[in-house]
Amino acid sequence: MLNIVLFGPPGAGKGTQSENIIEKFNLTHLSTGDLFRKHLGEGTDLGKLAQKYMDDGNLVPDSVVIDMVKDKIASTSGAKGFIFDGFPRTVPQAEALDTMLKEFDSDISGMIALDVPDDELRTRLLERGKTSGRADDQNVDKINNRIQVYKDETIPVAEFYEKQGKFNKIHGVGSIEGIFGEISTVIEKL
Ligand code: B4P
């Protein structure tokens, strides 16, 4: 299996680039943000629980995220591989993912980290907030909190994969096609 972790701060282009990657490499997309928004839209208990964290730009508790990802992997049959988008966001999530994949005799092939300066993130998210309807994109304080949470809780995940020799950094500013070209070059070498 080809399993890729697409990593980066909020607004780095993870969702955007995932769409290109799944099409070119025929992988299954697993975005924890999308899964939570689906639950939210359907008004499930999980969605209601996640909403208060997401609206404020905080992380949903690990146990909730990990159980949801386990369910998604277990209910996906015949996948050639996964693109993990927005997951793992904490070291316990990364450890849990390694354990889950071991059950399928598999592992993470590589991590791709999109590097984008904070000012550009704020500009992109506020722009998306004009049309996305997402509460977490519409307020600069919430966006700043998301960026801070990324620095405090999520950056250690990059070190986790660096220690495994799986870390690949890509400059995430420029045309979407140009950045995708660089991502493709990395994936083709995995
Ligand atoms: P996510 O849905 O993962 O939200 P995100 O980080 O904002 O999205 P993404 O980074 O994919 O957006 P993209 O760059 O593609 O998470 C939302 C919330 O869910 C979290 O805050 C948290 O509460 C919760 N959550 C999710 N996963 C969790 C987990 N594992 N653990 C705990 N909680 C979790 O797009 C941004 C914008 O930039 C778009 O408008 C796009 O068009 C634009 N853009 C992209 N590339 C560009 C480029 N090259 N140039 C210019 N603009 C570009």
Can you walk me through this structure?
- The chain has 190 residues and is α/β, with parallel strands linked by helices.
- The protein has one domain: Rossmann fold (3-Layer(aba) Sandwich), CATH 3.40.50.
- Helices cover 59% and strands 12% of the residues.
- The protein contains eight helices and five strands; from the N terminus they run E-H-E-H-H-H-E-H-E-H-H-E-H.
- It has helices at residues 14-25, 32-42, 45-56, 62-74, 91-102, 118-132, 140-163, 176-188, and strands at residues 4-7, 28-31, 82-85, 110-115, 167-171.
- It has a five-stranded parallel sheet.
- Helix 1 crosses helix 8 and helix 4 packs parallel to helix 5 (91-102).
- The protein is globular.
- The model has no long low-confidence stretch (mean pLDDT 96).
- Bound molecules: BIS(adenosine)-5'-tetraphosphate (B4P).
- The site of BIS(adenosine)-5'-tetraphosphate (B4P) has 27 residues, from helix 1, helix 2, helix 3, helix 6 and helix 8.
- BIS(adenosine)-5'-tetraphosphate binds next to helix 1, helix 2, helix 3, helix 6 and helix 8.
Write a concise keyword list for the protein shown above.
globular, alpha/beta, binds BIS(adenosine)-5'-tetraphosphate, Rossmann fold, 59% helix, 5-stranded parallel sheet, 8 helices, 190 residues
Question: Short summary of the structure?
Answer:
The protein is of the alpha/beta class and 190 residues long.
CATH class group: Alpha Beta
Query: What overall geometry do the principal axes of the alpha carbons give?
Result: globular
CATH architecture: 3-Layer(aba) Sandwich
Strands across the major sheet, in which order? 2-3-1-4-5
CATH superfamily descriptor: P-loop containing nucleotide triphosphate hydrolases
CATH-derived topology: Rossmann fold
Gyration radius (Cα, Å) is 16 Å
Rounded average pLDDT: 96
Number of domains: 1
N- to C-terminal separation?
A: 11 Å
Oligomerization state: single chain
SS class? alpha/beta
Low confidence ranges: none
Figure out the total of helices: 8
Q: How many strands, which pairing sense, and closed or not: the largest β-sheet?
A: 5 strands, parallel
Order of helices and strands: EHEHHHEHEHHEH
